[in-house]
Amino acid sequence: MQFSAILNPRSFEVVLGAGEIGFGTDVTDVVQANETAVAIFGKEKIGVLQGSDRENFALDVLTEEAGADADSAQQMARTLYMDLRGLRSLDATQAFGNFKTGALSGRFEKYLNSKRKSGATIVGSFVVKSKSHYRAVWSDGTGFAVNMGGRNPEAIPFDLGDMRPFSFGRGELSDGEGVFVGGEDGYVYRLDSGNSFDGDQIKGFISTGFLQWGGEQEWRIHKCVCELDAPASAHLSITAQFNYADGDVPISGANSFNVTGSGGTWGATNWNEFYWSQPVEGRAESDIDGIGYNVSFIFATAADVDEDPHVLQAYKVWRSPRRQRR
Questions:
Q1: CA-CA distance, 265 to 255, in Å (whole number)?
Q2: How far is CA 18 from CA 8, 28, 30, 137, 259, in A?
């Protein structure tokens, strides 16, 4: 690790006060951990550099058990990075200047393991401060976003399609936070912007966990009602699978809807920010015909290029009991 001369950040001449510190392994990332410490990540080591100049710089080795994947470290409320064990954090302890590592990916570790087994490598990471997101992207164009704003980290995967990312950057613009990615095709793309994927439809789906209402009771599922914060028109499809999708009970047919919403309350909603004769919340009712001891619902969308985003808020299930499984 090299540091420049005092008051001369472009000079790396030793006679002017610059210098270097050996780390013992290839450096994969450097992050400002707090006001007085810099975290240095290597392939097989993590260290913390503290001090203000060459006279009092002190490098403390935090761990030599594992290092960090290249370009995976980011600073939010804590320092986040990826290694062979998943997503981890570098947290400051109560003692001044001390740090400890902690695991964060227990709930989505299987997904990270599957990416490593596929041979994909991390090409970069970035943060979206307005959403409290940490995001990492792999060489196959897929990635995952981790919401750090709740009690526990929550992750969801995404796919950048045919675009292969090369570099990332962010900044504050006149219309809000701007997050950019440079593609291997030479173009620069802005993420989280607009209602299309570079002119193509945005496709996505959510699969719920398998719901089971006690013991070995079978249930006939009659209906699923989905409520969402929808624009004037949102495309949504609902289907269901039963008994851990074992194949014995067929998947119910998909029902597709154009959900309307974005209505307002007269005298309370801002003018020109709602649609006349539209409900405040969108609602889709899907008839489901199937019997099982558990059920999972799949909500999918293929949005038009001019369709505003929607937010799934809740869903309700109509059911009636059937026989007990023996």
A1: 30
A2: 9, 22, 18, 35, 63
The Cα–Cα gap between 192 and 210 comes to 30
C-alpha to C-alpha distance for 206 and 28, rounded to whole angstroms: 34
Return the SS3 of 121.
coil
Predicted model pTM: 0.76
The half-sphere exposure of 174 on its side-chain side, counting CA atoms within 13 A, is 0
d(CA 153, CA 156): 10
- Distance CA(239)–CA(320), nearest Å, equals 18
The pLDDT tens digits of the residues spanning 120-171 come to: 889 999 999 989 999 999 988 899 999 988 888 889 999 888 888 889 998 8
Is 158 in contact with 144 (CB distance < 8 Å)? yes
Task: Name residue, tokens 């950057």.
Answer: 169
| DSSP per position, 6-32 | TTBTT---GGGT-EE---SS-EEEEEE
Integer distance in angstroms from the first to the last C-alpha of the chain?
67
DSSP 76: S
Show the tokens assigned to 253.
Answer: 């047919």
pLDDT tens for each residue of 268-325: 555 555 455 555 567 788 888 889 999 999 999 888 887 778 888 889 999 999 888 7
Closest listed residue to residue 97, CA positions, set 126, 140, 60, 123: 60
30: left (phi over 0), alpha (psi -120 to 50) or beta: beta
Residue with tokens 């997904």: 111
Residue 127 in contact with residue 133, Cβ under 8 Å? yes
**Rounded CA separation 102/107 (Å):** 14
What is d(CA 16, CA 4) in angstroms, rounded to the nearest whole number? Answer: 9
Report the C-alpha dihedral over residues 16, 21, 26, 28, rounded to 10 degrees.
Answer: -70
Rg (CA), the chain: 25
